[in-house]
Write a structure and sequence with these properties.
homohexamer, alpha/beta, UDP-N-acetylmuramoyl-L-alanine:D-glutamate ligase, ten-stranded mixed beta sheet, four-stranded mixed beta sheet, 14 strands
Chain lengths: 334, 334, 334, 334, 334, 334
């Protein structure tokens, strides 16, 4: 029987002034659709995996546009229609020294208004053998934290592989509970994790040795989440304001796999590289490819996303592999 | 001492797919700024009156863009900064037989979250000799209805002239009180009113004689709002799907003044004609011009607005007067 | 077991200068995707039916863009990848007295290069209970005529309902056989037909009585295609250069059902109205709705398409029904 | 030896807000190139005649863009480089009842700064057998009036056919001489004239009989300009705000030739119809076609120009002939 | 009583081909508004100071658009309406090795046609306690040089603080007097100056010691303009074609204050950095902030302007301060 | 008698998603016109040489747009109209690490359908004293290889100077003959050649000494093509992913002339640099300028093309010379 990857999270409309304009200069806004888990669903679908995206939206023309935007890339939408808003964010992209700027307008989204028990996880996950979520959903409010737990319990009960992304957002977590109170319990359910050093400190109070940062972070994360089978991280070294060295790392069964490093310049878009990486990683792990292949592919996904506008990584597998072969030189393909 | 016209209402961001696209076809959205009272403030300012626009907005870059959009036309913004959202609506403009479509996304706007007593009307109105509001604000929730009353009481106490627009919105009035319970009390404070027959029935249960519709509506409105000095209405006769006859009427002191009728074809935008009319009317009354002149000018404002995209009537006084002289023939001005 | 509607035809890229420009004035071209059967597939999918679109395309990024364009609306693509081109047409849209202009660049498309026997119809139609095709495919060349016949034989053998659109194109039929030699045989397989008077003459030599045009055409078509269960036509009466009266007619079991007539003005796009009509008709017949309902809905689909840019009718069922209720007046939906 | 048509006049940059925006709403302006005589040169070149356009421009990148814009359509530029500006006009196009609006910014153009004797007409006209000018050039200042006379004298001396367009512009003629003092003398040199009733009154004090307007105007014009061989006029009857009846008339040798009348609706652009008409007329007369053919073709040129954005009539001969055959119905050409 | 900063200069329309196109490739032009003093007025207004901008413009729709462009940012326009043109410049922005290119079309602007005595400086400056001008105005012609002197005398008589920018333009100064004859006298009135080494040589014949360039230039400027209280400069060191080191310097009371140096890469716009710097500087000095703070803020204003398209620095105070804190790293603000 | 440069090759429509979008993200495509020899013809014409471009196209509106695109820059089109298509390519431009991607859709172009003997070379070349072709034309099919030979024989017989560009395209040469079988014979006719090391190996099996690459390649090319008078090459050293060192080399009469090296960063377009170089080279050689000047100018043409979007190098001679003077620093020209 055909199996698939289910993902759960908030779907967001992104509105961006064109051509690096500031908001106050703009007369039009570019529409993009986003959401960490939706971004990953799009990657998986493009890479050939069947992906089901579970979310809540109001039943209107704007949602319809959003649903069509994911269908375009082959994602299977599982929409729970509910009064409320389409979560939105405004993104003024940066230029040179000027930082990009996000204005969140995601309050009162349909997803954030969900009540515990409202989503029927038994049914939603009946055809899945992988489930992905991230730290954004429990950061919205107490109910979405509870619903995340419901989903994880249902997935675990079914023996479904669970992956997560730390995805800490400092502008969320405003509902009275700290991330440290909520996240460790939820993360116990996970088999595969995309982590980062700063968030590891926030969620678990982990303090890795800077002299041995990658290895020690992996070691400490495994200590606090003994159920984890695979952990991934990316590291950036900022060589100058416009040049980053970017490398991927994967821990599995006490081995660390490291990608070749990329020098990233001329960035078209700074958003969504982590989701692109995670999409590549899940794809490779879901299809049981070798770990070295997985980290190389995932890292190249992160690299190519810096060249693509919008939150989705719309590159094909062949295009990601070209990045790996060309080592990022950008030579024209005729 | 210099006096001015204050207006109070919700300021809205309007997002519209370009070139009559449907939302599902769009990749970009045009940004316009709107709100019945803001639209009137822009008209007044362009016509040379000093206009102060009182509203509540969150303190972010999006609000800043909105404030600059009214400043551009000379409106004096009086912003009460408050957490919440920028009220938004999506407008898919119609084409031919296909109707335009509005998706409201105005819930949880900063203005709708205002608490009674939060706005200091004594101070806000200290420099005003005219105050304008509309039926949209009390339709949002109980608090905005109370705040509307606070404003009206303060204005009345100061002897400020008060104008209102019925502005009934069927998609609002969801908070437990009907418009019939709320509006009659608020409208007692008004001196100048923009009315329409359908809403007169809803607010007051008035049932005018169809054989004598305009006159009888004026008569009945004066009965239920004895304080009214001036009442205006516009009437449309739809001659065909793409052609409307449009006429303005003004009642004052038992006289009825009627504008020349216009045949409106090739409509660029169906939104904001009422506000354009009211802007023209207030301008003429505020500057104590003859009533016949007032209704002719106001009606021409309504006519020209059908040719202007966006919610604001950005036409100048000279341009409105050209409409009156050309009788809508559209001959090029070299 | 879930059943679906399969459709077979050539998928076309349409390139159009923006804003009624002539080709010689253009610096950019708008991309649309088209093809009579693809247009219908999109309608069906939006209306809630499962639609599978069978075509041949080269395996490149342009095809990928085209496939994503139909996926966006929920169509299930069944692509036979094959060397050759993406069939293309350039469309300079008309304005006022200036006629629109089509430049076909569809030669050597992958579909036109198909060999008989290359498509495995047994397998392609295994999950279908309705099959749709049109007169465009056999007009391309001898092979596509043969392949059309293969498809029809396979569908008939499986007892699948077959619908067709006459779709005569005078610029095709260049391969040595006339439409009159080819089409009558293929149309014998059909149960449901979208016909028109001029093409009926070309395909069958039918010469209906002008005094009784609709009825007599239906009668004569039934004579030459005795297997037909349902026949539809639309009639346009051109009242002036910019105003058309448009009515739909349906024949079934010796009854004729007629839609309300629409007066169509302010046309945004003259292409695709027939496909929109056929999409509405198949939807209603597939779901076994009453014939009067079917012709009213199909005709309103044709009407609303005149207001939508691009070849696809992207309107929802509710929007089509609004046209029926508003009778094409175009009043804003708030 | 190959002969050609020379034209002399001011070349103008036209800047227009896109999509019927008002200037105050615009962030971008569309660039078009214009000038009555340049517009005619483009028409002639597209129709297959060799056209040389004589003007003065400053030597900069803006002029270079303007020259390339006429070269694009095959016109042969004869540029006299001279300090000064590129004459410019801003055109806010009208919509519905709102009139279009022209802001001239043509002062101090290189052409307007020309000194008598500066252009060497002997040499400029050495390869020409037709010369065209219009009433705009002598309206600029005393020098351009004198230079017009120099050109006419040189052309007359060479026996070149001379055509003219009245082209009265009320916003010009500011230099102390009235059009009545200047134009009659210059027009004595002309063989072919595009006239209109209102300007005939201004230039010559002619007062034709309204009951017999076309014929009487022709008669009176011939009286005051006895050298004229051919006179043309177009007449508009405004049936409603959005519908014009448009007819062309030609006088030659005491015969009047009249085109079929067109009903013009849905106007894309109100500028340049007269120049399109004149381009069609000169083309037919230059190639010695019958007068009835000439007036039909010229009138259809005027009609199709209403559907084309920008000052140039970029339609081909075949397209103009299609208008004549379709009688303006606008049916798609596949 | 409320005081404000008055600025005087020529207001310019800037027209730029989009997306680094060359003029000859463009079909549209982006509209920006500019003028050294207007740019500074916008900065001041955004930073919270009251700014009045004094200029002359013709009374037309184009001027109206320009005035609304400054009003948008809160500037108070003091327009002297006068026949003439809107000064214009065309800017083809550079890309990589290709230099940007300015075509001035500013002759015969209303401001350049001003007569001495025409502006009533007593009245214009009655509410000001700071006055800013630059070397562009006296470079236009003898009258604007005289008018600059009138303004300076009036300001000096009122005891208003006067700031100036050297702003030498080699393409101006064509009217018979050299900058060396005119500028020294005018600069004697100034209290605050933005200088640069090259212009110092031109205006005063100063020849600073290259080994000690900044200090020596300050010293020599103070010698020739003993009334100066504060002098500022920026220095660029071009590290490579696409990378500049940019540092600000301030002299006051024999102290030199130096900003942190910035490495500027990926430049969106090379125009207006000096005005952005001056806007930041005047803001800090007007509000009597410490000199080190002033030079850091002014320099960060110059830096952020390189990332903003158009002549105005539309960044807020908070955004400039973020540049100072992030040291130009461009990290996204969520 | 006036002489000119004739060029022969396939003219191509290029369609590119705007702003570095991927094809799957695009709703519009930018139209450019291209073809190696057409690109050179445009350069020559802009530099002041008379250029005639010989090609075959179908007779439709798309060809008309293409012809007008070369006429715009002054090229003299010599079009052989013939059924078939307009050769097309889709170009997804790269960004950062993401490579650009070309999808050819040039099959069945009118030029590729030409039969030997169909073009009348005697007549086509009667007014030429230079002829240019490239390795793309014989790569299309056996007929275009034969036609190339016909052209070369006719040119040689007339004593016309012949230039060629190796222009190897790996995606062509599919018709059964290898480039090694075809090209050496054709290249024997050439006097001036643009070569590159990799193609030299493919066409002639040449294997130059890497330690002395430029010199040895020149030496070996001269051995196999003894008729060559002048050979040119460009060399790129990729310093990093976004930075190239670019140098031009010219061999003539046993002398090697080398240009100053340029460091190319921030590339707007990677296509057409070779043609820009060749255009500059032919211009200088045709006008008998010194060889050092020729290689400097040609190399600067290649450099500036990296900053210009579209296949044509639209820069003027003055602009190329500015690159030479500024050494690529990009300083604004006021």
């Amino acid at each position: 029987m055909s199996k698939l990857i289910s993902l759960f999270g908030e779907y967001l409309l992104r509105l961006t002034p064109p051509q690096q304009q500031k908001m106050i200069q703009a007369d039009t806004l570019e529409m993009h659709w986003a959401g960490s888990e939706a971004n990953i669903a799009v990657s998986l679908s493009i890479f050939g995996d069947e992906a089901k995206y579970i979310t809540a939206l109001p039943d209107n023309e704007l949602s319809r546009a959003g649903i069509s935007a994911m269908r375009k890339y082959g994602v299977n939408p599982a929409i729970h229609y509910k009064d409320g808003r389409v979560g939105t964010y405004y993104y003024e992209s940066g230029q040179g020294a000027r930082p990009g700027k996000i204005i969140y307008d995601r309050q009162y989204s349909s997803l954030s208004l969900l009540q515990p028990g409202e989503l029927k996880w038994e049914e939603l996950l009946h055809d899945s053998d992988w489930f992905h979520w991230s730290g954004i959903t429990p950061a919205l409010n107490e109910n979405t934290a509870l619903i995340s737990k419901e989903a994880l319990q249902a997935a675990a009960a079914k023996g479904i592989t669970i992956s997560a992304d730390f995805n800490y957002r400092s502008t969320l977590w405003k509902y009275g509970k700290s991330c440290r109170e909520v996240m460790p319990e939820l993360l116990q359910y996970c088999n595969v994790l995309l982590a980062d050093v700063d968030t590891a400190k926030l969620y678990f109070g982990i303090d890795p040795d800077p002299a041995n940062l990658v290895e020690d972070t992996f070691r400490l994360l495994k200590q606090v989440m003994p159920g984890l089978g695979t952990i991934a991280m990316t590291m950036r070294v900022q060589e100058s304001a416009s040049s980053n060295q970017y490398t991927g790392y994967l821990w599995h069964d006490n081995e660390i796999y490291q990608s070749r490093p990329y020098n990233i310049q001329q960035i078209a878009e700074r958003i969504g590289a982590g989701d692109a990486f995670m999409g590549g990683l899940i794809h490779k792990l879901y299809n049981k490819q070798p770990f070295q292949d997985a980290i190389e592919f995932a890292t190249a996904c992160g690299v190519i996303k810096h060249s693509i506008t919008g939150d989705f990584n719309v590159a094909t597998k062949v295009e990601v592999e070209t990045i790996m072969q060309q080592k990022g030189s950008g030579k024209i393909i005729r």
